[in-house]
C-alpha cells in the first residue's frame, strides 16, 4: 500500500473523518499534540519506521508526514 494511503487510513481511523487531502494541516484535522503522538505510533507500526519526538513536533501537514516516512525508508 502507498505511504499516503497508509497515513490517511490511520488518521481516518483516529479522528473519524471521510476525506483527507495531501496538504491538510494536522491541527485543522483536529489532532492535538497527544492525538498526534498516538497517531504517529500507529503509523510507525504500519510503515515500519520510528520517529523521534523532535520529528513529530515539526509535522504540520499530511505531506510532512509522508515526506518524513519516505526519507526514513531511503
Question: Strand percentage, roughly?
Answer: under 5%
Number of domains: 1
- The CATH topology, please? Non-ribosomal Peptide Synthetase Peptidyl Carrier Protein, Chain A
Q: How many beta-strand elements?
A: 0
List unreliable stretches of 5+ residues. Answer: none
**CATH homologous superfamily descriptor:** ACP-like
Number of helices: 4
CATH architecture: Orthogonal Bundle
Mean pLDDT: 92
Overall spatial form: globular
Helix content: 55-70%
SS-based class: mainly alpha
Please report the first level of CATH classification, the CATH class: Mainly Alpha
Would you list the SSEs in sequence order as H and E? Answer: HHHH
Largest sheet: none
What is Rg? 11 Å
Oligomer: single chain
Ends distance: 17 Å
List the helices and strands and how they pair.
Blueprint: H1 3-15, H2 33-47, H3 53-58, H4 62-73
Please provide a written account of the structure.
The protein is built from four helices and no strands. The protein has 74 residues and is mainly alpha-helical. The protein has a single domain (3-73), classed as Non-ribosomal Peptide Synthetase Peptidyl Carrier Protein, Chain A, CATH 1.10.1200. Helix 1 crosses helix 2 (33-47) and helix 1 packs across helix 4. It has helices at 3-15, 33-47, 53-58, 62-73. The mean pLDDT is 92.
Q: What tags apply to this protein structure?
A:
single chain; mainly alpha; Non-ribosomal Peptide Synthetase Peptidyl Carrier Protein, Chain A; 4 helices; 62% helix; globular
